[in-house]
């Protein structure tokens, strides 16, 4: 639903930039260009969100599942509406961002951990992740990061 809203809002902003609405006939050309560029960015954000939702649905339908644990690294944004988490299995690690509203209240603090189940797409990225009965809403696909081990740690 958000994706469609972004796409429609982007089209409206572009229409305003192209002076389609009667009230926008008097805006300067520079402002029109800025509105069109901003509208394109909003549409691209909507398309990316739509693509991520499609990948999430595909991962639930036929992706490979992994059991592991999430670790909340921290909250971002003015209203702390985005959480950066790490999904860890015994042999691999992924970092992704999720909508904070999809996390349980006791998992919204930095350093919180919980058992989780993640679904990977064909490209080994995490597109869906569940913590208990809650389906988290990813804002970005989970990309694999290096495990901390003695070979990659600097010694001082």
Please write out the topology.
Elements: H1 2-17, H2 29-62, E1 64-76, E2 82-88, E3 93-99, E4 113-120, E5 126-131, E6 134-136, E7 143-145
Helix pairs in contact: 1-2
Low-confidence stretches: 149-156
Estimate the helix proportion, in percent.
Answer: 25-40%
Number of domains: 2
Number of strands: 7
Report on the architecture of this protein:
The protein is an alpha+beta fold and 156 residues long. It has 2 domains: 2-60; 65-145, OB fold (Dihydrolipoamide Acetyltransferase, E2P), CATH 2.40.50. The chain has 2 helices and 7 strands, in the order H-H-E-E-E-E-E-E-E. The chain has a 7-stranded antiparallel beta sheet with strand order 6-5-4-1-2-3-7. A hairpin with a 5-residue loop joins strand 4 and strand 5 (126-131). It is elongated. The N and C termini lie far apart (51 Å). Mean pLDDT is 87; it is low at 149-156.
In short:
The protein has 156 residues and is an alpha+beta fold.
Structure keywords:
156 residues, alpha+beta, OB fold (Dihydrolipoamide Acetyltransferase, E2P), 2 domains, 7-stranded antiparallel sheet, elongated, disordered C terminus
